[in-house]
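Good day; I would like, with your permission, to put a structural problem before you. What I wish to show you is a protein chain and, alongside it, a tokenised description of its three-dimensional fold. Thank you for your consideration; the sequence and its tokens are set out here:
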Amino acid sequence: MSQLLPLDELSLTFARIKGLLMTEEKVDRAVQLLAEGIRDAFPGSVGAGVSLLDELGRRTSTGSTHQVVARADQAQYELGEGPCLTAWATDQTVIMYNIATEDRWPSWARAVNDLPIKSAISTPLMMGAKSLGALKVYSGTPGTYDAGTARPLEKFASTAAILLNNIQAGGVPKRLGKALTTALSGRDVINRAQGALMQLHGLGEEDALRRLLDLARTSRLPLVTVSEGVLARAGKGHQARA
């Protein structure tokens, strides 16, 4: 499955975490928000998760979007094997095409046999030469993930590592770096369009955000472009159709 993860979608996830950088909330909250961002970017997956690991492979923080993810991850940490730990240890993206034919992690495969997991992909959170942990996505269908999935997930992980490293450093960074700055560009336009949809259609914050994402996907236009169109129509007094 080749997935597209536009930079605009990355900006939405990191925009949600902007307040964490300013208020210095705990890393756990940022990790959970990142897991939810991956889930939203890869619809149809069973769930997604983020794990921060120390130099011995022990979890220091974790976030997941579904109990299935939490159980699959717990089995990895207890057994010391699995796609997430392999991605962390090798600093490379790991794709599991079909758990029925998987022989790299036999104990883990047996442990999650009763879970609705058939394929998975995991990529490390790299900050320079330092591996902070790994992102992972699970699917209930074999062959869901491939190299086309890996590229956008790695892009997500690259920017996420910058953010997490800054939060773990224990301070509000004055400079977030070029990648994060780029990811956050256009946030104001998107936020204003989100507010316009909320006002015009009586939507909640999350529903308005999802409507913008749906418009971007169906029109195959960048989210910023779609948001500008919503604002233009709103300014003319016409309701934005979504």
